[in-house]
Amino acid sequence: MSTSESNKFTNRLIHSNSLYLKQHAHNPVNWYPWGEEALVAAQESDKLLLISIGYSACHWCHVMAHECFEDEVTAKYMSDHFICVKVDREEHPQVDQLYMDACQMMTKRGGWPLNAFALPNGRPIYAGTYFPKPNWTGLMRELSHGYKTKKEQYLDYADKVMLGIEQNSLTPSIDNELTFSSGQILEFLPSLSQNFDLETGGRMPAPKFPMPDNWQYLIQLYINDYTTVPDNEHLLLTLQTMANRGLFDQIEGGFYRYSTDAEYIVPHFEKMLYDNGQLLNLYSRASILYPENKLFKHIADSTCQFLYDQLFDENEGLFHSSLDADSEGVEGKYYTYSLQEYEAALGNDLAKIYGSLIGDGLGYWAEEKLYNPLRLQYDVNDNDIYNKLKQFRKQHKPYPSRDEKKVLSWNCLTALGLLTYCELNQKFKSKLTTLVNTIITTYLSNENNLIRVAGNNNLSACLDDYALLIKLLVEYSGKYSEPKLMTLAFDLCQKCIDFFETDEKVYLYYSSTIDKSQIISRKIELQDNVIAAGNSIMAQNLYTLGILFDKNEWTLRAENMLKGIIPLLNTSLPWFSNWGILHQHLSLNYQMLIGIGEEIELTKQLSSIDSRLLLKYQVLLSTESNSIPFFDGKITGSWYVCNANTCTAYGTKLSEVLI
Fold first, then answer.
1. Per CATH, the architecture of 12-168 is what?
2. Is 331:368 a contact under the CB 8 Å cutoff?
3. Distance from the Cα of residue 558 to its chain's centroid
4. In the chain, what are the domain boundaries?
5. pLDDT tens per residue, range 204-225
6. Is residue 368's pLDDT more than 70?
7. Coil, strand or helix: which one is 31?
8. pLDDT tens for residues 561-604?
9. How confident is the model at residue 343, as a pLDDT?
10. DSSP characters for 414-455?
11. Which of 125, 289, 422, 437 has the fewest CB atoms within 10 Å around its CB?
């Protein structure tokens, strides 16, 4: 660690590509980035590892940094007694998963910042989240002293922790006699609906995360004409409340990460690409299904505009990761307004909009009473007022920092959102095509290996990176007649199996065999969270590609993966909702719509059909002969409706085939 005239301290994080690590490059802590150097240093010095994990947009990460890591006395104790390691969870999600598992096992909670203490070989002995400085210093002294005086106990405890982590990673058994039926859905739904907040939408308790796949599950039921589902009204309530209140930036568009309260008034203000890409998809589908609801279309439009205005890199053709929650050290400072700022921005218009804008006094933020703008009812006539607030914000408020790393899986989620949004706005088709091609050329090596972060060949792609790129290629190539991209999806699927295979050959590991992060345990992730589990996405990919390429072992594997999850759908659907969507496909007549012929004619016929009806099908178009076995024997100029390996309808006019 060195000093300079401009910064009193500079540590080795200054050489990192990660914005999060660079934010700590001038801490007085002797930080290491995650990697071999830190692990060797710990083993040679026989010091515990202090592993601090977070991300650049995280408010509480900033708070702990200011309180602890910037304090010279605290930092000196850290550096003297531990090998201190900083980890960007967005670069190393597999490292984050390992220590988050330890944290949740020990404390029954999780979150970021995540602070773990581990033996020199990386095995965790303690983990927690945010610590105020007195608690932090006390914990460090206790663990440092304990390791020196009771090392054998620490070694034994680390063994028990690792055993617990490995037991938590055990995969469920497969009941080969199990079948999939529509009646099972009624058994699954209570575990989703039992915690519905009937007043303001979403699920209790707070904090409330958007959890897009929960609502995609209900939308898929609606698409599949599952009319006995009782939760359509709650779906609409949730979508409207998330859109109208404080979770959504009413001024410049885009969703914040989550709401701290049950009413969706006060959020944590970081804006994440993975949230907005998925919510663009969700609100686009909702707008297609409910065209009379102008709010849903407005939210889809505004979210797409936000993505291109504030997160898109024109030079690289990809999307950045996030916008920080804080500006000038204050969370939400850029996004919120004091009453005096409202008056300065709006003048006489304030009285007109007051109740809708701030909820008659709801939603103030912090002691300064900074109000997060709401839009309690959508009225296009109010847009001039919101434009005045936007102008004031840009002229007078400090813009939050932007994390400019480009993560493969998050860009794929955004491309999938754009793919759906193009049903509402065909003008974005060229942007989507450019994005898909840029993703392929940026993240794919000559050997069909993937990297996770653009420009960093040392960060191998994880399972969700492979799974979401494959999903994107399947959906894009099918919709826009790109058989070569479907073949690439097939090749990547085989590569994914090779790199992430487990001994049981059912589920897949999260980290690959060529991963360079030196983690001590590979995890199998099954639970869908804010982003669906890589395994649930891969199960869908294996099922679809297995049908298209006549790989029966892939479709069988997908079914077996789902069979192991069925008991969890009964008890915990909110955490396995993407698996639940696959169950719908297999139990409610999964259908493919096949079109073969000239692109102009295919597109013309598709555009004549109600978009709501088309959502029911996996659309696969082909304008040329190709090597995909499923297209063998199909006649040019024809449409087919197929269920797995059986085609049930055929004709030259799409309108007649879909009757």
1. 3-Layer(aba) Sandwich (3.40)
2. no
3. 22
4. 12-168, 198-303+321-402, 444-587, 592-657
5. 999 999 999 999 999 999 888 7
6. no
7. strand
8. 999 999 999 999 999 999 999 999 999 878 999 999 988 889 89
9. 83
10. HHHHHHHHTTT-GGGHHHHHHHHHHHHHHHB-TTS-BBSBTT
11. 437
